[in-house]
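User: Show me a protein chain along with its predicted structure.
Assistant: Here is one chain, sequence first, then structure tokens.
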Amino acid sequence: MTRNIAQGYCVVEQSGGLDFQARELFSDTRSPATRLFMKLNADTQWVKPGQIRIVADPDVPLTTQMLTTLRQAKQKTNNAMTGVSRLC
């Protein structure tokens, strides 16, 4: 089966650690997609609603430029959430 899934991000809906976020997104927590998710987001072990996590298809090459762009967007968004205790 051919897939054409764009690399991107997901917006966190519920506070939690990286393991919790992986379980929310993937039905098989031992899949290649889950392992890639854990690797791409290892720099932020805990997030709150509104912050983002990078998601990517392990079968589609992730270029350095795309990964850099996604990491910059993630960092900018997550930094903007610093000091916010909850969303209204």
